[in-house]
Write a structure and sequence with these properties.
alpha/beta, five-stranded parallel β-sheet, two-stranded antiparallel sheet, 35% helix, 24% strand, globular, disordered N terminus
């Protein structure tokens, strides 16, 4: 098998989200926010008594995640368009938060072709985390 074929067969995104979820040590019944990449693996891990909400800035990503939720027959997951800097959830809502593969969309304003003055997203994310909650982040 060639290296190219190995790379084509490797499902990098699935492997990544499963590993981050594994490192989080999620508990059954947890309430979790996913700011990219881990929703499906997390929903499977926390079981039907928990719930994972995923957020993304882009409609095409929301459509894809909703399709994956349906494909995996998950009743404990949902996704919505939202910016992590403008979360609509109450403070101290989530026991777990994952944030992976956020990319340049969060630190670079493509519409105005300039970097944001500061990347304050983590401040907003931490507000909705419970005091004894856990965050898993990758870039």
């Amino acid at each position: 098998m060639t290296n190219r074929k190995i790379l084509e067969d490797l499902d990098y995104w699935t492997a990544f989200d499963k590993r981050l979820v594994e490192l989080m040590n999620l508990t059954k019944g947890a309430q979790m926010l996913d700011v990219g990449a881990c929703l499906i693996a997390a929903a499977k891990k926390i079981g039907s008594t928990g719930h994972v909400i995923g957020i993304d800035l882009y409609e095409n990503c929301i459509t894809e995640v909703n399709s994956n939720i349906e494909k995996n027959k998950l009743i404990n997951a949902s996704v919505e368009i939202m910016d992590a800097r403008n979360l609509t959830y109450k403070d101290n809502t989530f026991g777990y938060i994952t944030s992976g593969f956020i990319g340049f969309g969060d630190v670079f304003d493509f519409a105005n072709n300039k970097c944001r003055k500061e990347n304050d997203k983590l401040e907003h994310i931490y507000c909705v985390l419970k005091p004894i909650g856990k965050v898993g982040i990758s870039k």
